Amino acid sequence: AIGATALIYVVMLLKRRCLLVAFGALLNSSLHCVSSAFGLALLPGTLRQHSSFHRPSRSRTKNWVLHSSNSGDESSNEGASVSKDEDSDNEPNLQQRFGRYWPIFKTASIAFVAGSLSAFILSIILFHQSLDYNPASTYQSADMSTSLLPTPTRTKSLSESSQMQQPVTLYRLIIDILKSSYVDEINTEEMVQTSVESMLSTLDPYTEYLSPKELAKRKNLVGIGAFVMKSGVSSDSVTLDGMSASKLISGIPSAIKLPTQLLEDKDATQKQAFKVVLSLEGYAYDAGLRVGDELISINGQSITGDDASTMPSLEEVRELLLGIPGTTVEVQFTRPGVDGVQTINIKRGVVQFPSVPCATLLKETTDGSIGYIRLRRFGADAGESMKAAIQTLQSKAPQEVSPTRTQQDNTLAGLVLDLRDNTGGELFEAIKVASLFVPDNTYLGSSKGEGSMMPNQSYYSGKLDLAQADDPVQEPTQQMIDPDKTHVVILTNKQSASASEFLAGVFQDLDLGVIVGNDKETLGKGVGQRELPLPAGALKLTYHEFYTPSGRCVQRQYDQNKSKQSPRRHTNSDEVFYTTNGRKLGDRRGIQVDRRFKPSRSDLSELLSSSGAYYTYASQWSAKHPSAKLTDVDEAIYKDFRSFVLKEQQKGNLKLEEIFDDKHILQQMEIISKSSNDRDLSLQSLVKIREEIVKDLLTDFDLAKDIIKRELELNLLTRDLPDSVLIERGAKSDALVKEALKILMDNNSYDTILNKNPT
I need a surface site. Which of 212, 430, 444, 560 has the fewest CB within 10 A? Predict the structure, then answer.
């Protein structure tokens, strides 16, 4: 038994099943100890029965008789008495000796064989279990959802398993050598994290390791639903949760372009305060806080100062506003143009941005109304929110636009679905949205992967065909829009990603609508991900890719020479697919638009947004006209704003040339000029360059007047109107939306793009 189990151990060690070998050795040793102890426990009693023999008195039987005694001590024969007339000629023969020791041998043998046999069987079981061993199961935690864990699968071959373990052994050996023999002390934790990150960088751009520190920094947005800044401090220099504030601001959905800094008023005589740049509906806005308000104190603690250096940091103010959901925070503030200090109590909560912030009617045509829906994200409510938005538009169409129309005419002639800047979300919510436009059981696409986390899936409207389930999970949906009667245009840009690309792909492949965008393609992120907890940190894992109904993959094919590769590099990205009407489609390029339209843009307008010039002027205008109800920006306001910009530029509060020079080339030129032989001449040339840059930027006041007026108008209106109203107002003047309206109002153009009438 010992030899057999030792052989099993050798085989298991050769296959590097170290954990199972250690466990098996422990159990085997335990079983042998138990069997030996059991045998030894029975042995004393057996010895007591057979340790003393006596010769019987001469009788006919001439048999040995054993007499037990109740007296005597350990040095005696334990009470056994032998006949006094015993004779040396009557010693027991071999058979009698065997009969004497057989019970002892039998007891010990049975116990030892039973233990050895059990140990041998256990070793065989452990060996077979080692073939099914999955290292990922080691990292399963008690609070980890089993639906997110890879299902253990049988290793393809023993040689393959050995090949996998060899580099792991090599890696551990190198770490041990470095730790024990390197010239300097090393941080093993940092080294391992760096190597893991480097390893994952050879895969797709989205698989990554999240360290415990990174996980600790991530917090749910629990607060009052407002964002504040202080003047004269760039958000690039401020860090929140390990992320620059400017990057955080750029990811916040808003009807206006939020500033990354605010102009510093160097002539100000009163204390500086934190200024509100965003106030969300359902949160701070409903409590009475508006964009432009200046916070004085939070829960009685002053947050003002003589200048930015004497004020609390943005992180400190943020901590004061954060708290347990459901609790309230007292905020005192002043409002430009309104006397006195106002005090309100705002209820804290988990801040969530709505999936559908706007649904409105854009235009009435001879065929009916054209609606607009902004689908900002695919949150858990995206499907239901889209359903409610469509119902709202269908109900408003005959009442708002043409009261004479009957309920039977209550349909939309066209719909603009805006997916710009929609970075994705829940794929199943995208399937629910698509199901509103197609009959039940329409094939919508699939997801594929070679791992064991989730099997390949096919998606149909009205149900999710999960291969691992006994029955398909039913998602009751009802088609609400017939694309043959309601023409659809989807708006995209380079930031449209993931689930929004899947939805756009469904519309394009099935020829349900026209894709229009100001970029040629969408982002090209067509992968599903899960975050798997690890003993230290977590693994954000890409486990499958999305495929549209035509069979093409949304995931972009990356350059083979780059460190970031496409997960499935063997796929031929030049393969051609076709829509229902026979239009050609490319593979692994994101979603290519059917009609590209590049609206005019203004560098000056973008600089005025990021610098806070729009914001500061709107605050000053509101202070001068506290009771004015602005409808639009007229020529007087526009000229006044232009004068404001020139004045701030001359005062030095606004430096357009430095904001424009985001790579700091002018600063480098200045440093070089100061050290040159012709220092004065070089500096004079640099001044002229700055003046020419500003002069060229300011020409946009004439060349891009419509763009600047539109952005200025939205900034002025943020003081009085919620974000949803601003999105609706902005959509009606949006250049890309206007292009979509042209396509929807021209049936021949729409049909030609979709190849509905091939020649």
Answer: 560
